[in-house]
Amino acid sequence: MTENEKKTAAALPLPLAALSGVLAGLAALAVAEAVAGGTRPQAGPVVAVGGAAIDRTPAAVKDWAIRHFGTNDKLFLQLGILAVLAVFALALGIVALRFRRTGTAGVLLFGVVGALAATGRPDSTGITDALPSVAGAVVGAAVLYVLVGRLRPRGPEPADQDAVAPPAAGWDRRGFVIAASAAAVGSAGAGLLGRSLSGAGGRDAVASRRNLVLPVPASRARAVPKGAQLRVPGVSPFVTPNGDFYRVDTALVVPKVDATTWRLRIHGQGVRRPLTLTFDDLLRRELVERDITLTCVSNEVGGPYVGNARWIGVRLADLLAESGVKPPSEGGSADQLVARSVDGMTIGSPVEDLMDGRDALLALGMNGEPLPFAHGFPVRMVVPGLYGFVSACKWIKDIELTTFDAYDPYWVKRGWARKAPIKTESRIDTPKPFARPKTGTVMVAGVAWAQHRGIDKVEIRVDDGPWQEARLAAEDTRDTWRQWSFPWRATKGGHTLTVRATDRTGAVQTDKRTKTIPDGASGWHSVVVTVD
């Protein structure tokens, strides 16, 4: 071997040590996910650490993530966690080359972090949630220990095993290749096993949804008025397809709940007759069908997090009355209903609003089919007029009656409002910002909403000109959004189009810009266009 070859061979272990760290990290994650697939997918380290990160992230940062990444915010979070883990794995591999025990101990430390995150989650089932992270860490540490051992110089071991001299050209090339290949193949196999087990765990839930045939509702929604959907290209469809309906929640793994084993408990302050209901119990009750528009509190002015669907469900007020609950206006002692999800989310709603005659539902169906898993199957809450963070509990399993003074739900603890009726808002769907329409008549169109109050008027302003009334599409109900259009005689140059709405109480949409925190954004939506 030439002198250059010797130098090259001696230098190789450093990048190979970094590779060893990555392989150890992959092995740890793959084994952890395999164990989680066989126990509980939500206990996997990436999901558990990600959930803990979401819980501890300031509200403003969460809002920024939703604004910039939309419904992909969870994907970006998971990718960020994996990127951080990859960097640490590289570093641990390099450290382990010189300090073998210290490097492997670092892998075990990450296992402890994952275990603590999993057992500390609101939906944790106990100490068994620590198993995926612990098992993964043990395997990852063993892989790193073996791999860096193949990079150490051959010959007598130094007295201090944790302070090794830099490796020379005598490291075990063949042994390293075999061990690294075995680690890679084993990780791939564990990863595939984890996916298979996770899928198997949800098969009963998938089957329960596939086999479900929703009964014909006793109270059908009226047909959508013929003129509710404008024939204007670019305007949002009146009914939002399930696949396009916005999804904003904190669940990194969509819960898959088997409807045949699902239970809902109603209990708490002022409940004289506690109830425990099965899914079949709900199906046997009087079902109602209603068109209701939902809005997320994270929706910026002009934002996309609003959608309209036809829901089938059971009136929540009927169940509460059956349990002996009375609204505060009738002497009831509880003024807050706390809904709990299977993933540990808690959402608080005013009891008065839920029992004031509006169509607050425990929904089972959405747009003619059982709820999609991403939207809460088997049962979720739908309440017209309230932002989702104070009403729209998905994957619901528990309803507790209490007071606002006694309990702060998830979002309230993080600086959001206790009560949040949806604000009167409007949006320009077409033309899009920075569009370049031609001179002549340009159809400006969009949607406006003020659920449980209804929209009475929409106005358009071009630049600093006067407000001009737009044409309203037919109204379905006061709980749905309403489309509008305005034929604008566009002239050449740059223009700003602004929209505002007036609800049925006579309140005009405010021009005051506010952030989404703490109770929803407000302000007028504008788009800038250039007419050619």
Structure characterization notes:
The protein is of the alpha+beta class and 532 residues long. It has helices at 3-11, 13-38, 45-56, 59-69, 73-98, 100-119, 131-150, 173-201, 203-210, 279-283, 316-322, 351-354, and strands spanning 263-268, 275-278, 288-295, 306-315, 336-341, 346-350, 361-366, 369-370, 380-382, 396-402, 425-430, 440-449, 455-462, 468-469, 471-472, 482-490, 493-503, 525-531. The chain has a 5-stranded mixed beta sheet. Strands 3, 4, 7, 8 and 9 form a 5-stranded antiparallel beta sheet that branches. The chain has a 4-stranded antiparallel beta sheet with strand order 11-12-16-15, with no helix packed on it.
Q: What topology, given as strand order, has the largest sheet?
A: 2-1-10-5-6
- Percent of residues in helices comes to 25-40%
- Oligomeric state, counting identical vs distinct chains: single chain
Low-confidence stretches: 5-10, 157-161, 163-168
Gross morphology is: globular
Cα gyration radius (Å): 29 Å
SSE order, one letter for each helix or strand: HHHHHHHHHEEHEEHEEHEEEEEEEEEEEE
Query: Largest sheet at a glance?
Result: 5 strands, mixed
Residue share in β-strands: 15-25%
What is the typical, i.e. mean, pLDDT? 91
Overall SS class: alpha+beta
Termini separation comes to 73 Å
- How many individual β-strands? 18
Total DSSP helices: 12
